[in-house]
Structures are given as C-alpha cells and as structure tokens.
Amino acid sequence: MRYISTRGEAPALGFEDVLLTGLATDGGLYVPESLPHFSLEEIRSWRGLSYSELAFNVMHPFVDDAVPADDFRKMLNETYAVFAHPAVAPLVQLDTNEWVMELFRGPTLAFKDFALQLLGRLLDYVLEKRQQHVVIMGATSGDTGSAAIEGCRRCEHVDIFILHPYQRVSEVQRRQMTTVQGDNIHNIAVRGNFDDCQRMVKESFSNQSFLGGKTQLAAVNSINWARIMAQIVYYFHASLALGGPDRSMAFSVPTGNFGDIFAGYLAKKMGLPISQLVIATNRNDILHRFMSGNKYEQHQLEHTLSPSMDIMVSSNFERLLFDLHGRDGLAVKTLLENAAKGPVSIEDYRWKHARKLFDSDAVDDKATCDTIREIYQQNEYLLDPHTAIGVRAARNCRRDPAVPMITLGTAHPAKFPDAVAESGLSVQPPLPAHMADLFEREERYTVLDNNIAGVQEFIAKNWKNT
Ligand SMILES: *Cc1c(COP(=O)(O)O)cnc(C)c1O
C-alpha cells in the first residue's frame, strides 16, 4: 500500500514511513493511494469474530508487509486485551434502535486509546526492525497526552515528551499523564498556555538540530494516518453486532479535528453499509458552519464543557477536501493556503456532494447539560459531555427511525465531573476500578519556563541515548 499527500507534491511513502512521519513535506496529510474494498459476503463472514480478529481483517491491507500477518495478529491481541471490557467496544441501548458505542474502556478512558495503544506497538515494532530510535514530542490540553503516554510506556525505542500548560489542565487529566512510571516518559509542565506548548512543538519539528542528529522527532497527533486507520475498525464492529452488513447503520460522531468521523466515511467507502453520518460539534463549529453554508472560516476559540473538541480549524478535514476535489492536490493546496488568510468556499456541486455524505449539528453547553440530565433521568446512564453532544446531534438529525443510530461514546463521564455537576445531577461518576487510586499515585513532572531553548535542552539531555 502506497500513501500520497493531500497537497500533491510530497513523495509517496510506504506504511512504515507514513507511521514515522507527521505532516508531508509539502504541508499535506498522507492518505492511502487506494482503499481496500470488502464485499457484503466477506463482511458477513466476519460475524462473531473477536475485536482483534476483526481489526486484523480491516487493517491488514493498510499495513501490508510492514508487519507480517502473524506478528500483526499478536500485536492486535495484545493491544485490545488491555481494554477493560471483553467486547472491547460494547454497545449500550438508549432507546428503540438507538445506541451508544462505549469507546472509553481503555487505559485512559477515552477513544484515543483505540489508536494510540496500537500506534505505540507499531512504532516499536518498526523501530526494532530498523534499529532506530525516535523522540515523540507533543503538546496536550487533555486527552491526547495521556493516551499517547499510555501507548508508549512499554516502547523500547521511543522516548516521549509531553508538554502541558502548568496548572492549566484538570487534576484528573494531569494525573493520568504524570503517574505513569517509565524512564522513557517525560512530562513537562510549561509556565505558559496551551498555544505556547503547541508553538514549541511545531518549531521543534521544523528545526530538529537540538537533537544533534542522533535521533528524530515523531508525531502522534490526530493527523497520523495510523490513528485514523485504527478508528475504522469499530464502525465494522458496531454494524456486525447490530445485524450488518445486511442492514445499514447511522452513526453520530462527536468531533473537532474530523478524525473519528473521517474514519466512518472510510468504513463506508470500504463497503460497509452506512446510510447516515452525523458530524456533531460543540460551539467550536467550523465544520457545522461549512456543512450548512459552504463557508470554511476560523472563529475565535471558545472554551466549552467538552474541551477535547475545542478547536479553531479541523486538521483532518483536509483529507475529505482532497476527495471532494477529485484528489487534485494542487486544488487542495490553493484552497488551504487561502483558508489560512480568510474564509473560503468550494464549488457548489462539490459542497452538495459533501452534504450528501454528512449531516451536521452544533450543540452548545446548555443543550449538552440538558442531554446529560435527560438521558440520566430516562436511562440511569451517565454520558460524558462529548458523548452527550453526539446523542443530541443524533436525535436532531436522524432521518430514518428504522435504521439503528449509533453514537460514538468518546469518553468516560468520570473524566469530566464538572459537566455532570453542571447538568444539575447530584451523582458523582466514579473512576473505574483500575484507576480508583489515581489520586494516591506518585506524580512525576518537570516544570520549565516558557522558553523553547530550555525545553529543547531538557529533551536533548533526557532522551535515553543508547
Ligand atoms: C479527541 C476527542 C474527541 C474529538 O476527536 P476528533 O479526532 O476530533 O474526531 C472527542 N471526544 C473526546 C473525549 C476526545 O478525547
């Protein structure tokens, strides 16, 4: 399998190189040159498979000979064995033909574990083969950092440095990062805000001389192709559990960076019958505004009760734009260069095509809280604020009640107790058993000034130089 850039100018790469690369050299994102396609008969034959067996069937065409079949099967067994539910992604029924797929049974209680648990193992496998080492550098305001750290904790060929804004992440989120023990894990609390952290990461990627040529940086943010790939699997899993592929499904997906929903779009293109895909955003609704009015325009960042979807631009949307433009990289490049300067639109027929593929809705904090409260009163089931946005959007946008509507449950409610409290409920979502002692565990992090030279010096000194 070859991968090409959405901006048309970077060289095509194989899976291993795409895994180790962030942005393409032309500023684009890597996508597969062509997608595997599965017949209904083939998908039907996957009924009753375990999650990891299903994951093998869906992902192996993408990974190809980078990981031989037996090794990949073993890797997937290990990856999905760490999830705290035997079904890995269990479905919970809310109403007639309405479901939540719980994607938060992994080590950090958010769906990002599905991809990052696999990504850590893939990286280590490929680096062992190549006898190479990488430094992962990332900035986080919440979920990504902890999922990435958990994913890399057992990697021999990876050091991970995660920057978070000092005293500006919630205690649960900080502790999920800083209590993971491992001498390849490095948490840096920067005396600055999230943007300062992100800027340092960006600048470090574009000039890696501080590493002295002895290692290289790798990215684990949501633009990494392997993350999208791992997210395709659970669409197949939900469909097969509810009578697919002999009936089609609808999905509602809480999204900010267009990662999770893009995976659903790919599942459909790979042959899975999906009749509706709902983009569910919070007040940071650039995607919903584009879908409703064909205008792609940055607004100010709003802080909401669903912080993991607080974005101004939606990085993976570029991958959809590439398809909408008939995979013309130059057209995408021009469009996004213009988008950096001001609002842009696409040709009407292309936009209409996008509207056929997706419905969308934006849900504010009040409606989020109303939904948490309503579902708790009806079902005694507690939603986290991100999932609540998905459920609200599903109900607002639903087209056909005969089609099962599945909302992706992206986080455990215990990660976001403030939203639960704000919804007026007096229940306290308890942390699951494997995290019950989170507040007693020893923390390890280093506080550094808001100064890139100091941060880079710390990284250069502390990655294990073997
Ligand atoms: C990251 C995250 C999202 C948004 O994911 P996208 O990659 O933007 O689709 C939604 N909910 C939770 C809980 C998250 O951590």
Automatic annotation (TrEMBL):
Residues 2-80 form the Threonine synthase N-terminal domain. It holds the Pfam family Thr_synth_N. This is Threonine synthase. Its EC number is 4.2.3.1. It catalyses: O-phospho-L-homoserine + H2O = L-threonine + phosphate. Belongs to the threonine synthase family. GO terms for molecular function: threonine synthase activity. Keywords: Amino-acid biosynthesis, Lyase, Pyridoxal phosphate. Its cofactor is pyridoxal 5'-phosphate. Pathway: Amino-acid biosynthesis.
